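In response to a reviewer's request, we include the raw inputs and outputs for one of the modeled complexes. The two entities were modeled together in a single run.
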Amino acid sequence: MIDFFSILLLLAGALFFLAGTVGLLRFPDLYTRLHALTKADNVGLGLMIAGLALQAESLSAAGKLVLIWGLVLLAGASVAYLIARGALLRGVLPWKR
Amino acid sequence: MNRTTRVYSILLKVVLLALVWWVLSDGNPHSWWIGGMAIVLALLAAKSPTSQFSISLLKLTLFIPFFLKHSILGGVDVARRALRPAMPIDPIMVDCVLRLPPGPPQVLLTNMVSLLPGTLSASLENNVLTMHVLDKQGSYANDFLVLEEKIAELFSVPVLSPGAGV
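The model returned the following structure tokens for the whole complex.
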């Protein structure tokens, strides 16, 4: 039963990583690509962490996984901001439909 | 900040740092004398608490489900737009005058905007947050106001002037 939920969560996580990568390839400019990377990959990682935490041998091992997720979340949001700000300061114009 | 809340805030930090050490050391009891020193050093190295702002543990606990729900919605939204053949995006840059005080509340807002559906922080300068919006027909303006109020609630500060300039 636990294995089943793990597989479900890991597959769902992989789907979000796939969608994030598709967005990275399909979206037209830097800003829209950052949207795909920060949001889709964070959810993908969160689902994978949840799937792996179910398999963890101890509570502290599961805690370590959650800690990793939190740090990646923080780093992802901060780095996305820095890249977007850098582009804005250099005058990179957003793509318009 | 009065004496009681300062003691409370230090105790909370000790508990959180101890939890992190317990996680990192896999609960190995022999590592605690190193961990204890690390916690003391971390407490000394951390900047003195910004006296203006404090977060209660209860409010943080209430904030986490809100955060999780909206970051999942954000992921689902962008995944859907990326995968749909028509790729429904209509981006725009928007300036918002913030209703939160400078410091931790604005920084948290800036980071959280990037995880919410359809918005990405691009610049925070003089109380104005410039954000990139993936779909200008979406409900981003309202979502943003709600997020601001949630963060004000978390830090127990009032939302300043009414109506963010969108």
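As requested, we also summarize the result in words. Chain A has one domain: 2-89. The helical segments of chain A are 2-26, 30-53, 59-89.
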